[in-house]
Amino acid sequence: MFDENSGPVATEDLLVAGETCWRVERADQHAVFIDAADYFAALKGAVLRAQRRVLFIGWDFDPRIRLDPRTSGRRSRDRLAQVLEDAVRDNPELEIGLLQWDLGMIVALNRGLAPIVLLNRRTPDRLTMTVDTHHPIGGAHHQKIVVIDDCLAFAGGIDVTADRWDTSEHLDRHPHRRRPRTHHDRGPWHDVTSLVSGPAARAIGDLARERWESGTGKRLEPVTDAQLCWPPEVEPFLTDVDVAISRTRPEHGGQSLVHEIELLWLAAVAAARRTVYIESQYFANRRIAEAIADRLREDDGPEFVVVNPETAYGWLDEKAMSPARAKLLAMLEDADVHGRFRIYFPVTAGRRPVYVHAKVLVVDDRLLRIGSANLNNRSMGLDTECDLSIEARADDPRRDELAAAVTGLRDRLLGEHLDVPPEEVAAALAACDGSLVEAVEQLRRPTGRSLVPIDPPELRGVDRVLAETELLDAERTPNRWQRVRRSFRPRLRRR
């Protein structure tokens, strides 16, 4: 589609294998977890029911965290390390492997964690925690994947580590939202991940086993004889639906660059007709911001609503990402001649900022993407990432059902932030003639839970230099925006 020699060719689908995604596979069932409380509880049950193999592929793990603190019972039996040990002890055929980014392990050690305890259990041959050192300098293995028996796969933005657990109520204080060692309340945390079964899960299993072999040198065969393993407590979001897997894989160790996630972002911006809803930990990718700016200048372009955290997490991230966000928002303010761009951060009932770690993209009633990739440069070309998407294609006989699911999830997310039911979001949209910007502005409140506009600071000194040079988050991919835009331009007309 974006071949250098043949030039761009218009396409009717956003999800194109080999371009904007790696593979498109059928999911027997598909679920979405908003915030980590329900995800961790479902993960615990799935691990304990696993038959042959569980593979964790992650940026960070903390074996001390509790997975389901809302249930009764001994706290120690609910901790990740104990759950894993119980699983292999109770099932002599089960193997569990955890593959973690090597620098993430150093961070873990600095916060007082000794993950080596996992290797000292009574079944070290069937419970393995190891680190992956195969990445470019400065790069991270940022995927958040758990595959169970190659028939069930979790993938999205939630790390199985400390500071992630929270409910969608995002209380100012929560008794279960505690750090393992200090027991301090980290604060409210918003996140999203997804779950699939069937061929889509087997495809993610292929990706996880590839990562395991790359990181450890050991090849694992697929699990082929496991029974159906959908968690009985999880209600599917959709059934019998195509799911696309998009990746970022940096050029390293003889492997070529894969930047399907970036191409999907650009295609989505190019194809959007009415609304683009974004949740991301950062807003620091110049190329995508420039694509958004192009659409904002159009007389009949789409609206963009972005939900970010108020500030980045940690000093280094703040220095790398906040100046970049301020610079890009200034550019978008100049481009937004029709008033179609807004960026907010959520707050609790007591107006405490909610940290946004989710990575979600919703385009019109057509595309839903949930993954590990942030809206920054490193997620597009330096780190390893995995995103899952569903598309309500025009020629799909179930298009209306899929479209309703896509917009329903968007309205649920906005309803969580605005403290209203999703039906009220949908009603506000209808009353505002489909304007997402006007609907959010109508529902925002000056007190209690709500969304607050982000007012970036004026860049000065070191921050200005960092923003101009992109020193801490450089671009690493070829610019395909104009080519992608021409490919998807036939779909710019509104329905």
Q: Tell me the CATH superfamily of the largest domain.
A: Endonuclease Chain A
| Helix percent band | 25-40%
Largest sheet: 16 strands, mixed
Q: What are the low-pLDDT stretches, counting only 5+ consecutive residues below 50? A: 4-8, 115-123, 490-495
Q: Which shape, going by the Cα principal axes?
A: globular
User: What portion of the residues fall into strands of 2 or more residues?
Assistant: 15-25%
CATH class of the largest domain: Alpha Beta
What is the domain total for the residues? 2
Mean pLDDT across residues: 88
Architecture (CATH level 2) name of the largest domain: 2-Layer Sandwich
Strand segment count: 18
CATH-derived topology of the largest domain: Endonuclease, Chain A
Which class do the helix and strand fractions yield?
alpha+beta
Please state the CA-atom Rg, rounded to the nearest Å: 22 Å
Supply the number of helical segments.
14
Cα distance spanning the termini: 24 Å
